Amino acid sequence: MTRSTAHNEGPKSDHTPVLKLENIHKSFGGVVAVEDFSLQLKAGEIVALVGDNGAGKSTLIKIVSGVHSPTHGTISLDGETVTFADASTARSQGIEVVYQDLALADLQPVYMNLFLGREAVYGPLKLLERKKMMSETQALVDELDVRIPSAKAIIRDLSGGQRQGVAIARATHWATKLILLDEPTAALGVAETAKVEKIIASLKARNIAILIISHSLDQVFRLSDRICVLRRGVQIGVKETAKTSKNEIVSMITGVS
Amino acid sequence: MKIRNLLAAASVASLLLGAFAQAQTVGPSGESATPSSGVTVGDDKIAALKAGGYKAALLWHDQSDFVNAVTAGAAAEFQRLGIEIVATTSAGFDAAKQRSDIETALAKMPNIVLSLPLDAVASAVAFKEAKDNGVKLVFLSNLPKDYKHPADYAAIVTDDLFQMGKQAADALADAMGGKGTVGWVFHDASYYVTNQRDNAFKTTIENDYPNIKIVAEQGISDPARAEEIANAMLLKNPDLGGIYVTWAGPAEGVLAALRANGNKTTKIVTLDLSEPIALDMVKGGNVAAIVADEAFELGRAMAAAGARALIGEDTPAFVVAPAVTVKASNVEEGWQLSLRKDAPKSVKAAK
Amino acid sequence: MTKLTSPNQWLDPKRYVVYLGFVLIFAFFAITLADDGFLTTRNLSNIVLQTAPATIMAVGFVFVLSAGEIDLSFGSITAVSALSAAVIMQEHSMLAGIAAGLGAGLAIGWFNGVMVAYLRLPSFLVTLATLGLFAGIARSMTNLRSIPVVNDTFTGIFGSGSLFGIPSLILWTLGAVIVGHVIYRESRFGAHVLATGDNANAAQVAGIKVPRIRLAVLMASGFCAGLAGLLYAGRIQAAKYTLGESDLMIVIAAVIVGGTALNGGKGSVVGALVGSLMMGMLNNGLILMGLPVSDQMIVRGLIILIAVAISLRDNTR
After folding, report:
1. B222 & B340 share domain
2. Does residue C242 surpass a pLDDT of 90?
3. Residues β-bridged to residue B319
4. Which chain C residues have any C-beta within 8 angstroms of a chain B C-beta?
5. pLDDT at site C6
6. Can you tell me the mean pLDDT for B16-38?
7. Shortest CA distance to B94 belongs to which of C76, C242, C73, C284?
8. Among B137, B97, B93, CA closest to B2
């Protein structure tokens, strides 16, 4: 298997990349889902992962988030090689995922979702520190401009855009290095999509690396710094968003030029 | 199907085990039985009772035709005597619920309590407060542990269990012309009520009918399995002249087995009224007779015993209500006598 | 130490249904049964005493339902636990009896929990089966006989005794409700139970050990049922296979009326207490009204139906 193209030609930088994937390969039984994938992400950079259904985007997200482990290849965070036993390990390393289906508990208030599985407690009895969780949540949603009635609002009473805002806020709260966004606006209307995109764009300022999967090329061009194209598990190429066009990306995705 | 016959009364039953050989129903402490007809309250006492403004509570173990008939009998007698029924409960066979029912009913301060104690041990505690407050207790069939007559309770009233078994034997022998072979389907559990009745049947056949032989004995603990058991019995003894079944529920299964085999000759006797069994009987099927108890009379006697105790009259420790043999000819009277109800429409229509 | 629950939940009118129903029924009986002893201290304390075992079962049941599971077997657990305690106490010390009773509850809860959490069998079917299984075991343990409980210390602690003038059954009820409420509302475990019942996937990806939660709630239910068994044994001073058998419907009704969602994710321990007291009060009042048994059942059934309908109108998803 020859590869003449260099994959990792991101903008040169003095900084160590936050995330470095080298020659990642994943097969399920005999079926190859991802082969020889390499990518680097810097802090404050948004990279979009595009490709048709079955191109291997979700598998890749699952590898980075620790759900699957790669068949071979290495993952490095801040220059250190890591292996994730499960999703919790990845999370403890500062990687957060916003899932397509949101993964919010509908009947619980916003602040309990923000702290889901990582609730703040106090005292010898380890009782829930609701006040602290509420105020931190309120501060964060205000900062990100996620417009919800209150941190105490029940998720079920929120709109789709508000829910996605909460899910992103949660990832933002816990991620120290990387946020993975899996189709963050797939279920949203136009206005809500714009709102969520604004929140995502604002995350750049927080110096977190973002890897986003999206079907909408318009969105990809609006948000991303670089675009990585996958086709049937094969990495076709990585382009700087500013230096490419939709037509080029579409032909890379489809293989038709 | 009277589930009351399945009551666990383990401690009472063990006291009674020795009594099976005797030719009559005996009380928990070996008391001899007084017929219920002997327990009455004379008209001359009514005025005094009415003046007392007495109250009664009926704390039953469950709901059934039988309990309804006992309640009706008690209610009629209480009404005659000017005693108000202030509470009626059903514990659904739950000893803890019965304990609660007793406590609740005591808030209405009854002077007489009629009850079937569900559990000899638990009820001894449950009825303690009522007993200590001088409430006159009249028990149905079972007795709380270590309660003494007359200090602790006015009377126990029960069916004449021996008579029921004996009359079943007489009726079956009559239907078989005094000779042949019999299958005996008894209740395979340590239950006072069914054990006494089953053994009375067996004793009567063995002692009084030399030409009838019990050739098959089969215990039953689950009425739902009666049909299988009867099939097995008929397979081994195809020429059975008659089958005794411990109560009507399993008898329905036995009847189903006979019908499935096209058997029209084997006679069945069983205990307690049941519509499908009675229907077969009036249609001239396999069922020869049903022996029932006079539940209404039983309730009346309970009420009368309580009232007598209240006005300081003696009460016999152990009272039995008579049994009645119901055949096709007297089915309507039988229903009235036992349950104080009209026989079911289907049964009357088939006559 | 416990803080108020989030104000949002207190603003939800559905939360008040059980309290409103309780007050209405209480007022109705207080007026109509004023001369029939309903309002006597004795009768009111009777209601609390009589509902103690059901209330404690209800506390465990709130956890199970909230986690999105169900436990139909707790009645059988109560019987097995009471019988275990009574049988052990015939030969051994009271402490051994208590340990046997609670241990039996925990063990059966564990058994249910392993099937549900690790073998991924539906809890409805698992506990429906173990309901019958342990009802059978309760029957065979002593051959249907009831076992007397004669240890005065035991019957005092779990039945007729009192501390500072407060009957022990009331103390047990209060203790179970307070501990249950704090764990449910104020602990991380409680939050994880709610999250699991609400959205097990979300809980899982948030790092909550969902199987462990499922195992834990079924063990909690077993433990509560075991404790209820000890209270029954202490109260009637005997253990019998029928104990707890008839509590299934009452406990489910109390918990649902008390504001716990059938599908998990939402509930209230205090609501379950009020629901249980409401059931007890209904039972008590209808008997005192002197109604025939069938009419009592009809009226009780209708009132429960109305209460459940109102509380479920918005609780299910």
Report:
1. yes
2. no
3. B34, B157
4. 36-38, 40, 42-43, 46, 49-50, 53, 143-148, 232, 235-238, 240, 242-246, 283-284, 287-288, 290-294, 296
5. 44
6. 71
7. C242
8. B93
Q: Which of residues 74-103 of A touch C (CB under 8 A)?
A: 87-88, 91, 97, 99, 101-103
Q: Distance between the two ends of chain A, CA-based, in angstroms?
A: 23
Whether residue B288 is found in the same domain as residue B299:
no
Residues C38-58 pLDDT 10s:
898 888 988 999 999 999 999
CB contact under 8 Å between C191 and A128, yes or no, is: yes
Quick one: B147 and B78 in the same domain? yes
d(CA B200, CA B197): 5
Question: ipTM, 2 decimals?
Answer: 0.83
% of chain B beyond a pLDDT of 70: 93
Same domain, yes or no, for B133 and B221? no
Extended strands (E) in B178-300: 180-187, 212-220, 242-245, 267-271, 287-293
Q: What is the CATH number of the domain that holds C288?
A: 1.10.3470
Contacts of B224 (CB under 8 A, 6+ apart): B253
Q: What is the mean pLDDT of chain C?
A: 90
Q: What's residue C145's pLDDT? A: 79
**Domains of chain A, with CATH numbers?**
19-251 (3.40.50.300)
d(CA C306, CA A245): 64
B180 SS3 class: strand
- Considering only CA atoms, which of C75, C58, C60 is closest in space to residue C257? C58
Neighbouring C-beta atoms of residue A253, cutoff 10 Å: 18
C221 with C60: CB under 8 angstroms? yes
Query: Could you tell me if B244 and B286 lie in one domain?
Result: yes
- Per the CB < 8 A criterion, the answer to whether A44 and A17 are in contact is no
Mean pLDDT of B12-34: 61
Q: Cα(A213)–Cα(A230) distance, rounded to whole angstroms?
A: 11
Q: What is the distance between the alpha carbons of residues A88 and B173, in angstroms, rounded to a whole number?
A: 81
Within 10 Å of residue C163's Cβ, how many Cβ atoms? 11
- Residue B46: which domain range? 3-160+295-321
Please check whether residue C130 lies inside any domain of the structure: yes
Residue C15, pLDDT score:
65
Q: How many domains does chain C have?
A: 1
Task: Note whether B254 and B268 are within 8 A (CB).
Answer: yes
Nearest C-alpha in A relative to C208 = A117
Q: Do C205 and A99 touch (CB under 8 A)?
A: yes
Residue B187 has pLDDT above 60, yes or no: yes
pLDDT above 50: residue C260: yes
Is residue B226 within 8 Å of B253, Cβ to Cβ?
A: yes
Q: CB distance from A239 to chain C under 8 Å? A: no
Total of domains in chain B: 2
Residue A72, SS3 per DSSP: strand
What residue type is B92 in one-letter code? G
pLDDT, one tens digit per residue, over A220-240 is 999 999 999 999 888 998 999
Band of residue B190 on the pLDDT scale cut at 50, 70, 90: confident
Query: Quick check: A184 pLDDT over 90?
Result: no
Strand partners, A81: A76
What's the average model confidence in pLDDT over A192-208?
87
The DSSP code for B37 is G
Whether C210 is covered by a domain: the verdict is yes
Which residues span the domain enclosing C274? Answer: 7-312
Same domain, residue pair B91 and B172: no
Examine the domain organization and report whether B204 and B59 are in the same domain: no
> What are B205-238's pLDDT values in tens digits?
999 999 999 999 998 877 778 888 898 898 889 8
